[in-house]
Amino acid sequence: MHDADLEALHAAAYEAFERPDLAAAVERFEDLLARVDDDDADRPAYHYMAGLACKYLGRWKESLAHNLASLAHRDEVDEASAWNAGIAATALGDWGAARRAWATAGLQLPGGEGPIDGDFGVCSVRLNPSGNGETVFADRIDVVRARIANIPLPVSGFAFGDIVLHDGAATGRRSHRGQQVAVFNGLQRLQRSAFHTFTAFVIAPTPADAEALEARQDTGLGAVEDWTRSVATLCLRCSYGLPHQHESNAPTRDAPAWKPMRNVGIAAVDVGAARAALDLWRASGPGRVVEHIEAAVLEVAAHRYDHCWWEAPDPAE
Q: What distance in Å separates the CA atoms of residue 175 and residue 32, rounded to the nearest whole number?
Protein backbone atom coordinates (compact mmCIF):
# COMPACT_ATOMS: atom_id res chain seq x y z
CA MET A 1 0.00 0.00 0.00
CA HIS A 2 1.25 3.51 -0.80
CA ASP A 3 2.08 5.88 2.04
CA ALA A 4 -0.78 8.14 0.95
CA ASP A 5 -3.23 5.24 1.29
CA LEU A 6 -1.94 4.43 4.78
CA GLU A 7 -2.21 8.07 5.80
CA ALA A 8 -5.79 8.21 4.55
CA LEU A 9 -6.69 5.00 6.43
CA HIS A 10 -4.94 6.33 9.53
CA ALA A 11 -6.98 9.53 9.40
CA ALA A 12 -10.20 7.62 8.72
CA ALA A 13 -9.64 5.34 11.73
CA TYR A 14 -9.18 8.21 14.18
CA GLU A 15 -12.04 10.15 12.61
CA ALA A 16 -14.36 7.17 13.05
CA PHE A 17 -13.42 6.95 16.73
CA GLU A 18 -14.10 10.65 17.32
CA ARG A 19 -17.42 10.64 15.40
CA PRO A 20 -18.05 8.19 17.18
CA ASP A 21 -18.51 5.10 15.03
CA LEU A 22 -16.63 2.63 17.18
CA ALA A 23 -17.32 -0.47 15.11
CA ALA A 24 -15.91 1.26 12.03
CA ALA A 25 -12.94 2.49 14.07
CA VAL A 26 -12.09 -1.07 15.19
CA GLU A 27 -12.32 -2.31 11.60
CA ARG A 28 -10.03 0.44 10.33
CA PHE A 29 -7.45 0.12 13.09
CA GLU A 30 -7.33 -3.64 12.49
CA ASP A 31 -6.94 -2.96 8.75
CA LEU A 32 -3.99 -0.72 9.58
CA LEU A 33 -2.48 -3.44 11.77
CA ALA A 34 -2.75 -5.90 8.89
CA ARG A 35 -0.84 -3.50 6.62
CA VAL A 36 2.04 -2.28 8.82
CA ASP A 37 5.15 -4.18 9.87
CA ASP A 38 5.58 -5.56 13.39
CA ASP A 39 8.26 -2.95 14.13
CA ASP A 40 6.24 -0.01 12.78
CA ALA A 41 6.22 2.88 15.27
CA ASP A 42 2.44 3.26 15.01
CA ARG A 43 1.62 -0.38 15.72
CA PRO A 44 1.28 -0.06 19.53
CA ALA A 45 -1.01 2.95 19.14
CA TYR A 46 -3.22 1.11 16.63
CA HIS A 47 -3.55 -1.82 19.04
CA TYR A 48 -4.34 0.58 21.87
CA MET A 49 -7.02 2.45 19.91
CA ALA A 50 -8.65 -0.78 18.70
CA GLY A 51 -8.66 -2.04 22.29
CA LEU A 52 -10.10 1.25 23.54
CA ALA A 53 -12.96 1.15 21.03
CA CYS A 54 -13.63 -2.50 21.89
CA LYS A 55 -13.78 -1.56 25.59
CA TYR A 56 -16.60 0.91 25.04
CA LEU A 57 -18.36 -1.61 22.79
CA GLY A 58 -18.07 -4.30 25.46
CA ARG A 59 -16.08 -6.57 23.15
CA TRP A 60 -13.90 -7.77 25.99
CA LYS A 61 -11.88 -10.58 24.41
CA GLU A 62 -10.80 -8.30 21.57
CA SER A 63 -10.09 -5.44 23.94
CA LEU A 64 -7.87 -7.65 26.11
CA ALA A 65 -5.97 -9.02 23.10
CA HIS A 66 -5.34 -5.56 21.61
CA ASN A 67 -4.21 -4.02 24.90
CA LEU A 68 -1.84 -6.91 25.61
CA ALA A 69 -0.44 -6.51 22.09
CA SER A 70 -0.05 -2.77 22.73
CA LEU A 71 2.03 -3.57 25.81
CA ALA A 72 4.07 -6.22 24.01
CA HIS A 73 5.07 -3.84 21.19
CA ARG A 74 6.41 -1.12 23.50
CA ASP A 75 9.81 -0.71 25.11
CA GLU A 76 8.24 0.89 28.19
CA VAL A 77 5.05 0.19 30.11
CA ASP A 78 2.03 2.07 28.81
CA GLU A 79 -0.20 2.61 31.84
CA ALA A 80 -3.35 3.21 29.79
CA SER A 81 -2.92 -0.10 27.94
CA ALA A 82 -2.29 -1.92 31.24
CA TRP A 83 -5.44 -0.42 32.80
CA ASN A 84 -7.60 -1.28 29.80
CA ALA A 85 -6.21 -4.82 29.78
CA GLY A 86 -7.12 -5.06 33.48
CA ILE A 87 -10.65 -3.81 32.82
CA ALA A 88 -11.19 -6.27 29.96
CA ALA A 89 -9.77 -9.19 31.95
CA THR A 90 -12.01 -8.29 34.91
CA ALA A 91 -15.06 -8.22 32.64
CA LEU A 92 -14.11 -11.69 31.41
CA GLY A 93 -13.43 -13.01 34.91
CA ASP A 94 -9.87 -13.84 33.85
CA TRP A 95 -8.32 -13.11 37.23
CA GLY A 96 -4.84 -14.23 36.28
CA ALA A 97 -4.74 -11.79 33.36
CA ALA A 98 -6.32 -9.07 35.49
CA ARG A 99 -3.76 -9.46 38.26
CA ARG A 100 -0.89 -9.41 35.75
CA ALA A 101 -2.29 -6.24 34.18
CA TRP A 102 -2.66 -4.48 37.55
CA ALA A 103 0.86 -5.55 38.52
CA THR A 104 2.12 -4.10 35.23
CA ALA A 105 0.33 -0.86 36.12
CA GLY A 106 2.16 -0.88 39.47
CA LEU A 107 -0.81 -1.66 41.72
CA GLN A 108 -0.59 -3.63 44.97
CA LEU A 109 -3.40 -6.18 45.31
CA PRO A 110 -4.75 -8.33 48.16
CA GLY A 111 -4.41 -12.10 47.82
CA GLY A 112 -2.25 -14.02 45.42
CA GLU A 113 -4.72 -15.47 42.93
CA GLY A 114 -8.38 -15.63 42.01
CA PRO A 115 -10.93 -12.80 42.24
CA ILE A 116 -9.77 -9.57 43.80
CA ASP A 117 -11.77 -8.87 46.95
CA GLY A 118 -10.62 -5.95 49.06
CA ASP A 119 -11.44 -2.50 50.38
CA PHE A 120 -10.60 0.07 47.74
CA GLY A 121 -12.64 2.84 49.33
CA VAL A 122 -15.80 4.59 48.18
CA CYS A 123 -16.47 5.98 44.73
CA SER A 124 -19.39 7.29 42.74
CA VAL A 125 -20.49 5.34 39.67
CA ARG A 126 -22.34 6.96 36.79
CA LEU A 127 -24.91 4.35 35.75
CA ASN A 128 -26.04 4.38 32.11
CA PRO A 129 -23.46 7.08 31.26
CA SER A 130 -24.65 7.25 27.65
CA GLY A 131 -28.23 7.94 28.78
CA ASN A 132 -29.68 9.50 31.92
CA GLY A 133 -26.37 9.21 33.78
CA GLU A 134 -27.64 8.60 37.32
CA THR A 135 -24.78 8.64 39.82
CA VAL A 136 -24.73 6.51 42.96
CA PHE A 137 -22.18 5.83 45.66
CA ALA A 138 -20.54 2.43 45.68
CA ASP A 139 -18.03 0.43 47.69
CA ARG A 140 -15.02 -0.53 45.60
CA ILE A 141 -14.16 -4.20 46.11
CA ASP A 142 -11.64 -4.26 43.28
CA VAL A 143 -9.70 -1.87 41.10
CA VAL A 144 -12.66 -1.55 38.70
CA ARG A 145 -15.51 -3.39 40.45
CA ALA A 146 -17.85 -1.71 42.92
CA ARG A 147 -20.96 -2.71 44.87
CA ILE A 148 -23.80 -0.16 44.67
CA ALA A 149 -24.51 1.32 48.11
CA ASN A 150 -27.48 3.55 47.19
CA ILE A 151 -30.85 2.49 45.84
CA PRO A 152 -30.81 3.51 42.16
CA LEU A 153 -34.01 4.78 40.59
CA PRO A 154 -36.00 1.98 38.92
CA VAL A 155 -35.53 3.49 35.45
CA SER A 156 -31.81 2.69 35.65
CA GLY A 157 -32.39 -1.08 35.71
CA PHE A 158 -29.76 -1.36 38.46
CA ALA A 159 -30.41 -2.31 42.09
CA PHE A 160 -28.92 -1.91 45.53
CA GLY A 161 -26.03 -4.35 45.98
CA ASP A 162 -25.37 -4.91 42.26
CA ILE A 163 -21.69 -5.28 41.38
CA VAL A 164 -20.76 -3.09 38.44
CA LEU A 165 -17.69 -2.80 36.26
CA HIS A 166 -16.50 0.80 36.00
CA ASP A 167 -13.96 2.59 33.87
CA GLY A 168 -10.52 3.47 35.17
CA ALA A 169 -10.47 7.22 34.48
CA ALA A 170 -12.42 9.53 36.77
CA THR A 171 -14.89 11.86 35.05
CA GLY A 172 -15.83 14.06 38.00
CA ARG A 173 -15.91 14.35 41.77
CA ARG A 174 -18.65 13.99 44.38
CA SER A 175 -18.85 14.98 48.03
CA HIS A 176 -19.29 11.97 50.31
CA ARG A 177 -19.35 12.46 54.08
CA GLY A 178 -17.21 15.54 53.86
CA GLN A 179 -14.67 14.16 51.39
CA GLN A 180 -14.39 14.28 47.60
CA VAL A 181 -14.56 10.90 45.83
CA ALA A 182 -14.01 10.06 42.18
CA VAL A 183 -16.87 9.49 39.74
CA PHE A 184 -16.35 6.65 37.27
CA ASN A 185 -18.48 5.72 34.27
CA GLY A 186 -20.21 2.38 34.73
CA LEU A 187 -19.47 -0.01 31.87
CA GLN A 188 -21.77 -2.93 32.68
CA ARG A 189 -23.40 -4.89 35.50
CA LEU A 190 -21.31 -7.92 36.40
CA GLN A 191 -23.47 -9.42 39.13
CA ARG A 192 -27.12 -8.81 40.00
CA SER A 193 -27.91 -8.61 43.70
CA ALA A 194 -30.75 -10.42 45.47
CA PHE A 195 -32.66 -7.16 45.93
CA HIS A 196 -35.44 -5.58 43.90
CA THR A 197 -36.39 -1.91 43.92
CA PHE A 198 -39.77 -0.73 45.20
CA THR A 199 -41.04 2.84 45.26
CA ALA A 200 -43.18 3.85 48.23
CA PHE A 201 -45.18 7.05 48.58
CA VAL A 202 -45.54 7.84 52.27
CA ILE A 203 -46.40 10.63 54.65
CA ALA A 204 -43.76 11.19 57.31
CA PRO A 205 -44.97 13.97 59.64
CA THR A 206 -41.45 14.88 60.82
CA PRO A 207 -37.84 14.33 59.74
CA ALA A 208 -37.52 11.84 62.60
CA ASP A 209 -40.30 9.74 61.05
CA ALA A 210 -38.43 9.61 57.73
CA GLU A 211 -35.19 8.75 59.52
CA ALA A 212 -36.95 5.93 61.37
CA LEU A 213 -38.03 4.46 58.04
CA GLU A 214 -34.53 4.67 56.59
CA ALA A 215 -33.13 2.99 59.71
CA ARG A 216 -35.29 -0.16 59.44
CA GLN A 217 -33.42 -3.46 59.24
CA ASP A 218 -36.26 -5.95 58.80
CA THR A 219 -35.85 -9.45 57.39
CA GLY A 220 -35.54 -9.39 53.62
CA LEU A 221 -34.74 -5.68 53.57
CA GLY A 222 -31.51 -4.39 52.05
CA ALA A 223 -31.92 -0.66 52.50
CA VAL A 224 -34.46 2.17 52.60
CA GLU A 225 -33.67 5.56 51.10
CA ASP A 226 -35.64 8.80 51.30
CA TRP A 227 -35.40 9.81 47.64
CA THR A 228 -37.11 13.14 48.33
CA ARG A 229 -34.00 14.03 50.30
CA SER A 230 -31.26 12.21 48.43
CA VAL A 231 -32.17 12.48 44.74
CA ALA A 232 -31.23 15.65 42.89
CA THR A 233 -31.32 16.33 39.16
CA LEU A 234 -28.06 17.84 37.95
CA CYS A 235 -27.22 19.56 34.71
CA LEU A 236 -24.41 17.99 32.67
CA ARG A 237 -21.73 20.33 34.02
CA CYS A 238 -22.81 19.68 37.62
CA SER A 239 -22.84 15.94 36.89
CA TYR A 240 -19.16 16.11 35.96
CA GLY A 241 -18.24 18.33 38.92
CA LEU A 242 -17.56 21.49 36.91
CA PRO A 243 -18.26 24.57 39.06
CA HIS A 244 -20.60 27.27 37.71
CA GLN A 245 -23.63 29.33 38.67
CA HIS A 246 -27.32 28.50 38.34
CA GLU A 247 -29.58 31.52 38.40
CA SER A 248 -32.51 29.35 39.46
CA ASN A 249 -30.66 28.05 42.49
CA ALA A 250 -31.38 31.08 44.66
CA PRO A 251 -33.05 30.04 47.93
CA THR A 252 -36.76 30.78 48.32
CA ARG A 253 -37.88 32.23 51.66
CA ASP A 254 -41.31 30.66 51.38
CA ALA A 255 -40.05 27.08 50.96
CA PRO A 256 -41.45 24.85 53.74
CA ALA A 257 -38.97 23.51 56.27
CA TRP A 258 -40.29 19.97 55.89
CA LYS A 259 -42.39 18.20 53.25
CA PRO A 260 -44.28 15.31 54.84
CA MET A 261 -45.07 13.69 51.47
CA ARG A 262 -41.99 11.57 50.73
CA ASN A 263 -40.90 9.38 47.82
CA VAL A 264 -39.00 6.44 49.23
CA GLY A 265 -36.87 3.77 47.60
CA ILE A 266 -36.90 0.32 49.16
CA ALA A 267 -34.45 -2.48 48.37
CA ALA A 268 -36.05 -5.76 49.37
CA VAL A 269 -35.97 -9.40 48.31
CA ASP A 270 -39.66 -9.27 47.39
CA VAL A 271 -42.72 -7.07 47.72
CA GLY A 272 -43.82 -8.92 50.87
CA ALA A 273 -40.68 -7.86 52.72
CA ALA A 274 -41.14 -4.27 51.54
CA ARG A 275 -44.78 -4.16 52.64
CA ALA A 276 -43.99 -5.72 56.02
CA ALA A 277 -41.34 -3.08 56.76
CA LEU A 278 -43.72 -0.29 55.75
CA ASP A 279 -46.55 -1.70 57.86
CA LEU A 280 -44.33 -1.93 60.95
CA TRP A 281 -43.09 1.62 60.40
CA ARG A 282 -46.62 2.96 59.95
CA ALA A 283 -47.87 1.26 63.11
CA SER A 284 -45.03 2.55 65.27
CA GLY A 285 -45.66 6.29 64.99
CA PRO A 286 -48.67 8.66 64.90
CA GLY A 287 -49.60 10.28 61.60
CA ARG A 288 -47.51 7.95 59.46
CA VAL A 289 -49.23 6.95 56.23
CA VAL A 290 -48.30 4.54 53.43
CA GLU A 291 -50.18 5.73 50.36
CA HIS A 292 -48.89 3.32 47.73
CA ILE A 293 -46.06 0.96 46.85
CA GLU A 294 -44.95 0.44 43.28
CA ALA A 295 -42.72 -2.24 41.76
CA ALA A 296 -40.95 -1.71 38.45
CA VAL A 297 -38.78 -4.34 36.81
CA LEU A 298 -36.64 -2.72 34.14
CA GLU A 299 -33.53 -3.92 32.37
CA VAL A 300 -30.25 -2.04 32.14
CA ALA A 301 -30.27 -0.04 28.93
CA ALA A 302 -27.72 -0.77 26.22
CA HIS A 303 -25.11 1.92 25.67
CA ARG A 304 -25.82 4.48 22.99
CA TYR A 305 -23.08 5.56 20.62
CA ASP A 306 -24.43 8.85 19.29
CA HIS A 307 -21.94 10.87 21.40
CA CYS A 308 -18.63 10.34 23.20
CA TRP A 309 -20.15 9.62 26.61
CA TRP A 310 -16.80 8.38 27.94
CA GLU A 311 -15.32 11.88 27.79
CA ALA A 312 -15.83 14.48 30.54
CA PRO A 313 -16.82 17.93 29.26
CA ASP A 314 -14.00 20.37 28.58
CA PRO A 315 -13.96 22.92 31.46
CA ALA A 316 -12.95 25.60 28.93
CA GLU A 317 -16.11 25.15 26.85
A: 44
